[in-house]
Design a protein that fits this description.
By secondary structure, this protein is of the alpha+beta class. Helices cover 37% and strands 18% of the residues. It is built from 23 helices and 19 strands. The strands form three sheets. Strands 1-6-5-4-7-3-2-8-9 form a nine-stranded mixed β-sheet, covered by helices on one side. The protein has a five-stranded mixed β-sheet with strand order 10-11-14-12-13, with helices on both faces. A hairpin with a 5-residue loop joins strand 4 and strand 5. The radius of gyration is 35 Å and the shape is elongated. Bound molecules: adenosine-5'-diphosphate and magnesium ion. Belongs to the heat shock protein 90 family.
Length: 640
């Protein structure tokens, strides 16, 4: 072009483009997400400017803050257009080629080691991903302060900028025109584009419209020389009208013949691809249960694509979920220094390997958005591991958008976000338990409905699926240990096969009882026969059964609850009120001394008179800080 000015890409950018062009990376899809994200940024900018100066928005179509995608199937040209802030000539030169972002070389390095292009947006070089699918790209842009320009490059180390004298005026904003490579033909397909927008950009805060084709039947004037086919149609039409024949009598033969015929025709119209007002931006009071459930399903489905390496796991999740409602959700808006919106869901079922993979995979199911732009769903800094079973989304207004993932991960506000998310998650679980509890059900009116029945038993269901996560939380999260302990459920010697809580246990404690009694073992059936329980049963004390292997570890962390200590009844230290103990100690002194000497000190630590037994003459007890017999068994089986 006559007026074109030529520029060379900055060396770092040039290297990046080489890598992209020669990349065998299979996930080329990301280019669309990057372009939409840039368009959305540009729209955010003009919207921001308009806050202080309404004039900048202009009038007419210019005020429509939207993104348009158009496809020319024949020419294989895909264009993405926005009515955002646009770029001046200088912006085009700097932003798209001559000034490498600080993240550029970091990204190039990363690419050479990991090859994971998916991160491109986080290094501030997302635009160049267009060369994954295009060999020639034009960027047409109009900024309020400048004329309309075209930037173009075939990725051959150089780009050109010309004043635009031939394209239609944009008014304001940017159109990126991709001349698709032969191998990228799959993107010249409306369905593919729709799928990608759904997958990556569904929750962009501006309307995304696709110039979509539509097959319609059109009535056109019937021809004189009609084919037999059409004649048949006309006959059937007139026979339908038979009943009206008398009224039509005045009409001439000619008028009775149909004057039109139907033809299939392709027309185009704008089709909105996203739900602009994302659920989490709405007022929780206005979102229906159905909408939450649908949103939940959309999250579950998207995951299928996003974790290809875990396709099976995620697939099975999605299958289980598809016609199931989440157990509960929490939708809230955090304000203050750190602002974010979040929706958390408890899935109806735990994935089959939730705990199997607990220690080696660290997969969060939370998506992170920053100002409506999807950042990542492998961002594990948002929730502690034990809450990884939750699904949902966080949209932060405080986190910066254009920094690397590493910088994001270290961002101060993450700690605050995490803290609040944990609180809300635990609140949600507590409420689930409260709604289900017998007390609250008793209080309710009898008429109250199916909804309550649905809630009945839901905590047991939760406990069954995710109870272990709560226990892992008690072990790992000292700050929230007490909150988590409240959520514990277990059976006891008196719970009659039902689950009970620590609060309920405490409310039933005898006035003479100081500690919370528990016993650990492989099964309730086995424990019920334990000699350690004889005396406690006889005296009517309640004892908790802990029968999950993780319970042994759990009880090393859970020292007390509401000022009550935990006492393993198979360990030293069990004190039952018994006035005769002192007397007995005296009179059996000789026997215990002889016994201790006979067994020798490396076999037993001590021999003592005990008040814990009723029928059994003697038991071997573990010392207070030693492993319980069951723990010995677990440790033994692990070292073997
Ligand atoms: P990032 O979006 O992280 O800044 P990109 O490589 O995606 O990095 O884009 C580089 C720059 O080009 C952007 O920062 C922006 O200044 C400019 N840009 C890209 N696309 C557009 C657009 N549609 N409208 C306005 N400016 C744009
Ligand atoms: Mg970008």
């Amino acid at each position: 072009r006559a007026n074109a000015e030529k520029f060379e890409f900055q060396a770092e950018v040039s290297r990046l483009m080489d890598i992209l062009i020669n990349s065998l990376y299979s996930n080329k899809d990301i280019f669309l997400r990057e372009l939409i994200s840039n368009a959305s940024d540009a729209l955010d900018k003009i919207r921001f400017l308009a806050l202080t100066d309404k004039e900048v928005l202009g009038e007419g179509d210019n005020t429509k803050l939207e993104i348009q995608i158009k496809l020319d199937k024949e020419k294989k040209i895909l264009s993405i257009r926005d009515r955002g802030v646009g770029m001046t000539k200088e912006d085009l030169r700097k932003n798209l080629g001559t000034i490498a972002k600080s993240g550029t070389s970091a990204f190039v390095e990363k690419m050479q080691t990991s090859g994971d292009l998916n991160l491109i947006g986080q290094f501030g070089v997302g635009f160049y991903s267009v060369y994954l699918v295009a060999d020639y790209v034009e960027v047409i842009s109009k900024h309020n302060d400048d004329k309309q320009y075209v930037w173009e490059s075939k990725a051959d180390g150089a780009f050109a900028i010309s004043e635009d004298t031939w394209n239609e005026p944009l008014g304001r904003g940017t159109e990126v025109r991709l001349h698709l490579r032969d191998e990228a033909g799959e993107y010249a397909d409306e369905y593919k584009l729709k799928e990608l927008v759904k997958k990556y950009s569904e929750f962009i805060n501006f309307p995304i419209n696709l110039w979509a084709s539509k097959e319609v039947e059109k009535e056109v004037p019937a021809d004189e020389d009609e084919s037999i086919d059409e004649e048949e149609t006309s006959e059937s039409t007139s026979s339908e009208e038979e009943g009206e024949e008398e009224e039509d009598a005045e009409k001439t033969e000619d008028e009775k013949k149909p004057k039109t015929k139907k033809l299939k025709e392709t027309t185009y119209e704008w089709e909105l691809l996203n739900d602009v007002k994302a659920i989490w931006l709405r007022n929780p009071k206005e979102v229906t249960d159905e909408e939450y459930t649908k949103f939940y399903h959309s999250l579950a489905k998207v995951n299928i694509h996003i974790f290809p390496s875990n396709a099976y796991v995620v697939h099975s999740l999605a299958k289980d979920f598809s016609d199931d409602k989440p157990m509960a959700w929490s939708h809230f808006n955090a304000e203050g220094d750190v602002e974010f919106k979040a929706v958390l869901f408890i899935p109806p079922k735990a994935p089959h390997d939730l705990y199997e993979s607990y220690y080696n995979t660290k997969q969060s199911n939370l998506k992170l958005y920053v100002r409506r732009v999807f950042i990542s769903d492998e961002f594990n800094e948002l929730l502690p591991k034990y809450l990884n079973f939750l699904m949902g989304l966080v949209d932060s207004d405080t986190l910066p958008l254009n920094v690397s993932r590493e910088m994001l991960q270290q961002h101060n506000s993450l700690k605050t976000i995490k803290k609040k998310l944990i609180r809300k998650a635990l609140d949600m679980i507590r409420k689930l338990a409260e709604e289900d509890s017998d007390e609250s059900n008793d209080k309710k009116d009898v008429e109250e409905s199916s909804d309550d029945n649905e809630k009945k038993g839901q905590y047991a269901k939760f406990w069954n699926e995710f109870g272990k996560s709560i226990k892992l939380g008690i072990i790992e999260d000292a700050t929230n240990r007490n909150r988590l302990a409240k959520l514990l459920r277990f059976e006891t010697t008196k719970s009659d096969g039902k689950l009970t809580s620590l609060d309920q246990y405490i409310s039933r404690m005898k006035s003479s009882q100081k500690d919370i009694f528990y016993i650990t073992g492989a099964s309730k059936e086995q424990l019920e026969k334990s000699p350690f329980l004889e005396r406690l049963n006889k005296k009517d004390y309640e004892v908790i059964f802990f029968t999950d292997p993780v319970d042994e570890y759990l009880m090393q962390y859970l020292m007390d609850y509401e000022d009550k200590k935990f006492q393993n009844v198979s360990k030293e230290g069990l004190k039952l009120k018994d006035s005769k103990t002192k007397e007995l100690k005296e009179s059996f002194k000789g026997l215990t001394k002889w016994w201790k000497n006979t067994l020798a000190s490396d076999n037993v630590e001590d021999v003592k008179i005990s008040s814990r037994l009723a029928d059994t003459p003697c038991v071997v007890v573990t010392s207070k800080y030693g492993w319980s017999a069951y723990m010995e068994k677990i440790m033994h089986s692990q070292t073997l």
